[in-house]
Design a protein that fits this description.
This protein folds into two domains: about 120 residues, Response regulator (Rossmann fold, 3-Layer(aba) Sandwich), CATH 3.40.50.2300; about 120 residues, Thrombin, subunit H, CATH 2.40.10. The strands form two sheets. Strands 7-6-10-11-12-9-8 form a seven-stranded antiparallel beta sheet. The protein has a five-stranded parallel beta sheet with strand order 2-1-3-4-5, sandwiched between helices. The protein has about 270 residues and is α/β, with parallel strands linked by helices. The chain contains seven helices and twelve strands.
């Protein structure tokens, strides 16, 4: 039986961009729905079977931020991608924290957008499945390793969302779009997790960096998962299924044991 094509909803008040993106995704085998504003888009989300939403931020008939918040309140697992002008009021870290799976700034590369949509529509157990296990264990509580260097950066605390982690740093900040390896040691005794120490290990891409310490916003970076080791994948899927958080990559530095609220987790 032929697989049903994924349905994508494209929301933008600019008809030219809306139609161009619709044409692009139809060429890639998607079923496409179009809306000119957030209000019309949310009506379609409520009545149609939609697999992913692409939305502009600034629109006169219901803006994209409001649409994102309404969609995540209704169905946190429905992927939403935002695109915006460079002077938009929505920052990268706020976009990920509010639940957006990505934000693209105009003019953006359509090929990268299509690749990101394909990535997010891949099942999580395949999306983050690691393909290599070549790195030897090393003795750091929490470490970030830039793949293009041998330097190891010690991260102090972290938080986890549906698609990535927040790491706090004091110095030697990575750059946006840097690819990192991470190895995070979760000590025993964290509520909702097995009693033994847990290691989360994999690779990710830095999506935003905050290098200034604020009163309620510690300096650090948001990292999107790209690959996870087999054991880490099982643990991460259990954690994010128990979290029920809207954040794709959280921007806060709250400790992970304040975030995990699981009734049980298999050892």
């Amino acid at each position: 039986m032929k697989k049903k094509p994924s349905t994508i909803l494209i929301v933008d008040d600019e008809a030219e961009l809306r139609e161009a993106l619709g044409f692009e995704f139809k060429r890639k085998g998607f079923s496409v729905l179009l809306a000119e504003g957030g209000h019309q888009a949310f009506n379609l989300v409520s009545t149609e079977s939609i697999d992913v939403v692409l939305s502009d931020v600034r629109m006169p008939r219901g803006n994209g931020i409001e649409l994102l918040e309404r969609i995540k309140a209704k169905n946190v697992d429905l992927p939403v991608f935002m695109f915006a002008a460079l002077d938009t009021e929505l920052s990268i870290e706020d976009a990920y924290d509010k639940g957006s799976e990505a934000i693209f700034f105009k003019p953006f590369d359509r090929k990268r957008l299509v690749e990101a949509v394909h990535f997010i529509l891949t099942e999580k157990d395949q999306r983050w499945k690691g393909r290599t296990a070549s790195r030897e264990p090393i003795n750091f509580e929490v470490e970030l390793i830039q793949t293009n260097s041998s330097g190891v950066q010690n991260a102090k605390v972290f938080n986890i969302g549906r698609g990535g982690i927040f790491c706090t740093l004091k110095k030697d900040f990575p750059r946006t779009e840097d690819r990192l390896q991470f190895r995070i040691k979760i000590p025993q005794g964290v509520e909702g997790l097995p009693g033994a120490e847990i290691i989360l290990e994999g690779t990710g891409i830095v999506r935003w960096v905050r290098n200034q310490q604020g009163e309620a916003s510690p300096a650090g970076c948001g990292i999107e998962f790209q690959e996870l080791s087999e054991d880490s994948l099982k643990i991460v899927l259990r954690i994010i299924n128990g979290l029920r958080t809207r954040s794709y990559i959280p921007k806060s530095g709250d400790p992970i044991d304040d975030q995990i609220k699981l009734e049980e987790m298999d050892k």
